[in-house]
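User: These chains co-purify. Model them together.
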Amino acid sequence: MLLVRNGRMLDPASGTDATGDILLDGETIKEIAPSGQLAADASKYEIFDATGLIVAPGFIDIHTHLREPGQEASETIETGTRSAAHGGFTAVCCMPNTRPVNDNASVTRFILDRAKTTAAVRVWPIGAASVASKGEAIAEIAAMKEAGIVAVSDDGKPIATAKLTRQVMDYCRSLDLPVIEHSEDVSLAAGAVMREGVTSTRLGLPGMPAAAESVCVARDVQLAELTGARLHVAHMSAKGSLEQVRWAKARGLRVTCEVTPHHFTLIDEDVQYDSRYKMNPPLAAREDREALIAGLADGSVDAIATDHAPHEPALKDVEFDRAPFGILGFETALALSLEQLVHPGKISLLRMVELFTSGPARVLGIERKLASGQPADLTIFSADRAWTYDVKQSPSKSRNSPFDGRSFKGGPVATIVAGRIAFRLSHSANAGS
Amino acid sequence: MLADQLKSAAMTYRFRDLLALEPLTADELTFLLDQSKPFQEIQRHSLKKLATLRGKTVALAFFENSTRTRISFGTAASRLGADTMNLQAESSSVKKGESLLDTVHTLNAMKPDCLVMRHASSGAADFVARNLDIPVINAGDGTHEHPSQGLLDALTIRDRKGSLENLNITILGDISHSRVARSNIHLLAKFGCRFTLCGPAMWVPRELQAIGPPGAAIRRVFRIEEALEGADVILVLRVQTERLHEPPLSANDYILLYQLNADRLRRAKPDALVLHPGPMNRGIEITPQVADGPQSCVLEQVTNGIAVRMALLFLLTAGGAEETVDSHGALNPSPSGPGSAAAEVQKLAQAQAAGTKKDSPHAPR
Amino acid sequence: MRIVEKSQLMSAPEIDRTLQRLAHQIVEKSGGTKHLALIGIRRRGVPLAQRIAKAMRGIDGVDVPVGTLDITLYRDDLSKVAPQAVLQSSDIPFGVDNMDLVLIDDVLYTGRTIRAAMNGLFDLGRPSRVSLCVLIDRGHREMPIEAQFIGRSVQTSPTEIIEVRLREIDTEERVVLVDRTEP
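Assistant: Joint model of the three components:
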């Protein structure tokens, strides 16, 4: 039994913001009470003193890449989940673009078995929409659902054709699985390595217009209306895409969306031939970033997801246009959210927690809250602790983060998964240490 | 003698490399052009050979096809008395496995004093310069910049026109993919030149109007007749096949709309200059009549190219060697020491990575 | 380290008289000015050459051509000076083949400058004769090079510097001997 004492408990599902104690019994939350009511008996429980810290339901990252099976040089389920725990995440959804692609129940079971023995946090696999994500034949989604996938995606790419997207949506609606779309019009984006604009023109790098994303979001939203499916727009980066999502929500369609921390922090002007700023969708224009922040504030955006995409240094340390897309995300997500959204007053702390907890949970059709009987997953963090991100200390096998060396105010302090402490800051867990 | 030179040197080139013209000021650009003049003179001697860079080695690493620029840099090095190391890696051999970094480190292990590099990726010279501690000269990186071409074009224009100030420059062709056009804009805009960019709409994106220094006058025009009105200098770009145009356009359409012929040339000022980075496609972007006419500067461009490249090799390679040799032939560390120079470079690279965006990609000595 | 003026070697009128005398010597030695030309070595050799040519106009009534030579590219110590070296063009508007050239510089010291100057001249062609005229010869030669026409010979020590200041370039006109001393 573990008693988390005297933390400021933020639970968006119930709107709670109160100081109190939480008692964890095995893998479940046993009791929640105002501070001091639960006897702090050190002989009976392990005690975690959360004074000055914030205690939230365990964070969920619904968009990550763990690279296992097939690309273990860049990351494994073990190293990726340890990095996730360091970032405060208690559950991660891993995308199917592994080698082989997770397009059948055997690979799904492999991932879950590996996770059972090596993972530091919960691993919820996402299955491919099409076989090998080639966009031709539908994958064995039902068998994968039975094996344990929580959603379907051909991430890395869009589902190749409108016809196939419609078919996958129909099928997934009947299986009650969300379809997560990497929205990109491949012909508009062909050859591009960053967002098209003044910066790409100055640097002489081929760019893709914002329309490359929003054209595909528009397609997917129309098909969501046609099929009644649950559509989740992955790593949304453009103002035009957000407008499509708002339109869909206004019509009552089951359309949701996520934004990554790098998209609400950086813009295309930050690119300077450094492949740590290269990802897909690429860093967008100033006006897109502002629109995304407004969407995070007004509820149009449902979740913050990292799209954690490790690539070993040998792959990333090349000329910009040859480098693969993607950057790390787990360990800086919370700190960037505080820095860019909460501290400047754009959103409240409670809303931020929602974007990491009940928001993504809703996309997956599950619950995430602080209540008796719920899984014993907690994210404990400081809103003001000063620290500096040193990527060389990361448990991840990769080093591709543009935030290396950045100083932050606020960050993860402890991560509890199924009642066990998966991550804890090495010194005493006091606020502002 | 030495004291005089030190006192009178109001301007020196402060960077270790030449990667781009964009970060250079008008004064620095003028300095580079002025330093090319003595080397123009050497081209007129019967004995075009100096011993200035004797004992130095210049590595020429051309990862993208180029005969003219490679020969030009090679000749410049030889005329200064330097030896050359020639790497002609087709892009495909690099794709076969050896990374750019490995190739460059291999070359560097043979201890050249300077690397001249051409590559199909924008930013490749910058990437390599960050990983080496010898001077790097960018001989063309993707569609980003071709600094020595920009300089030799400016030298040609300045010699013919007397000054670079406030000229009307028209650039014709696939500007979106032209590193030559970009380098020219970055250089000439700093002297108050006004630009008219002309070509098919898909080859002249709107954003090109914003790439010059703040306040630069750059406009897009799609009709060649309008683009040539009042032009002082016309820079004709090659309709190229090795970097495919996006999208490809029929040659007949291009000739009909944008070929520079004698009739159209008459719309420009009577003393307008015609420049072309070469090699020319006679009969496509330019007619033989114009190419060989009195307003064409193409051959001067080539001669000036050698002078400019000699000046660049001289400025970047002649001095600051890690060692100097004393009267017994023994090696002495230079007063500023190799260690301190490398440390300076590293400090600056870290400062750039930490946040400054528009700063120069060079590392000063 | 401080720089201290030790003595004045020549005043303005003395410089002028010396140049006049040198002009006479050169004309006399060359046996006529038909193929004669003066080459001033940048920087201070240039005004000296121009003044000597002017003086020659007064003697023989002839205009002896004057060229200027920049020796930067021919130096043997380029790696030490190159970061600060500012290249100027040479300007020799006549052919050097079969000419009787007189190199003119302000101070002759180790002789390396003159070695470089001769390399530069021979890149241009084949003069029939090259001689050297300097305002001050301060000894300490490191090359087998001597001047045929000397304004004044001065014994110096290696820490001393001779500064020739000319009105065309500096704010005053005199030759001074300065020394570097520890404070």
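The beta strands of chain C are 2-10, 36-41, 66-69, 100-108, 129-137, 149-153, 160-165, 174-181.
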